[in-house]
Automatic annotation (TrEMBL):
Family per record: Belongs to the serine/threonine dehydratase family.
PANTHER family with a match to the protein in the record: CATABOLIC L-SERINE_THREONINE DEHYDRATASE, THREONINE DEHYDRATASE, MITOCHONDRIAL-RELATED
Catalytic activity: L-serine = pyruvate + NH4(+)
KW Transmembrane helix (keyword) present: no
Cofactor: pyridoxal 5'-phosphate
Listed InterPro entries: Ser/Thr_Dehydratase, Ser/Thr_deHydtase_PyrdxlP-BS, TrpB-like_PALP, TrpB-like_PALP_sf
Listed Pfam families: PALP
UniProt source species: Cupriavidus pinatubonensis
Gene giving rise to this polypeptide: psdht
Residue ranges of domain Tryptophan synthase beta chain-like PALP in the record: 5-289
Highest taxon in the source lineage: Bacteria
Protein name: L-serine ammonia-lyase
Length: 310
């Protein structure tokens, strides 16, 4: 039994009307951990247990850490999540809710990750948030489910942080014979490490993440993500935080589903009828979800004076 659930796939009348074409939503926001991350992390955790690992370590104060905590609770494996001081109280509470230990260490993620690495031994394994082939094969199952439902999308829209979702979805498209289905890879301004890398022709490392979409905040995409963005038809798009936040509010009003701006970025293409969608009669949006934002956060981030800050 997989740790993730099969999620609903539904055509959205409101998003279809806004986009001027059929918009399918794959509702990863309904995963028990609140995001698609559980697909890949679930597969990785189950594999590491079979290999004899007795403890999971994560250094993610976001949806990856929450997914590891959930997976550990299901597999009866103790989990330690090391996070920097900047991690929100809500994220820490979500991690602890699944019985995981939270250690707060350092001001930046690099400090937390260094401590996490020092805790590894023969028995403990570090779950990477996006750069692990096991993760990609797990994320690919979302495409398997779409293929089984006989919906063939003209294009798949998804958000990109470190590129684990991108790598996994492309793997899923390929293993279902959909090599020719393009992917529209969306980032926000200030978290646009893939767009900048494709422009430069090499993997760029951002100095800082200035977007409110913290779940897209990998300073550099993985080698695999950069490679598939060039070997598969991938269009890279960057939207402002304001568009991502507006999309979150509209989804909440119209579908009664709360997601992070990281997810709103993908939805914004449909709400704003982006030109990049013009060639397609129907598109599939991966509603990647995210459990760390509250309605108050969305409102606060939408204030012009704070938008773009932390
Ligand atoms: C992790 C995450 C992303 C980005 O995924 P990557 O695999 O890092 O590209 C997007 N949205 C949400 C909600 C996430 O948790």
């Amino acid at each position: 039994m997989a740790l993730h659930i099969e999620t609903p796939l539904l055509a959205s009348p409101s998003l279809s009307a806004a986009a001027g074409r059929t918009v399918w939503l794959k509702l990863e926001s309904l995963q028990p951990s609140g995001s698609f991350k559980l697909r890949g992390i679930g597969v990785a955790c189950e594999t590491y247990v079979r290999q004899g690992k007795l403890r999971f370590i994560s250094s993610s104060g976001g949806n990856a850490g929450i997914a590891v905590a959930y997976a550990g609770s299901r597999l009866s494996i103790p989990v330690t999540v090391v996070v920097p001081e900047s991690t929100t109280a809500r994220a820490k509470a979500l991690i602890r809710q699944y019985g995981a230990e939270v250690i707060v260490h350092g001001t930046a993620w690099d400090d937390a990750n260094a401590l996490a690495l020092s805790m590894l031994g023969d028995d403990a394994v570090l779950l990477h948030p996006f750069d692990d082939p096991l993760l990609w094969s797990g994320h690919a199952t979302l495409v398997d489910e779409v293929a089984r439902s006989h919906v063939r999308p003209g294009a798949v829209v998804l958000s990109v942080g470190g590129g684990g979702l991108l790598a996994g979805v492309v793997e899923g498209l390929r293993r279902n014979g959909w090599d020719d289905v393009p992917v529209i890879a969306v980032e926000t301004v200030g978290a646009d490490s893939l767009a900048q890398s494709l422009d430069a022709g090499r993997r760029v490392t951002l100095d800082a993440i200035t977007s409110v979409a913290k779940s897209l905040g990998a300073r550099q995409v993985s080698e695999q993500a950069f490679a598939v963005a060039q070997s598969h038809p991938v269009r890279s798009v960057v939207v402002p935080d304001s568009a991502a936040l507006a999309a979150c509010e509209r989804l909440l009003d119209e579908h009664r589903i709360l997601v992070e701006p990281a997810c709103g970025a993908s939805l914004a293409l449909a709400y704003d009828r982006a030109d990049v969608l013009a060639p397609y009669d129907n598109v599939l949006i991966v509603v990647c979800g995210g459990a760390t934002a509250t309605v108050d956060d969305l409102r606060r981030w939408a204030q012009p004076s704070i938008s773009g800050g932390a």
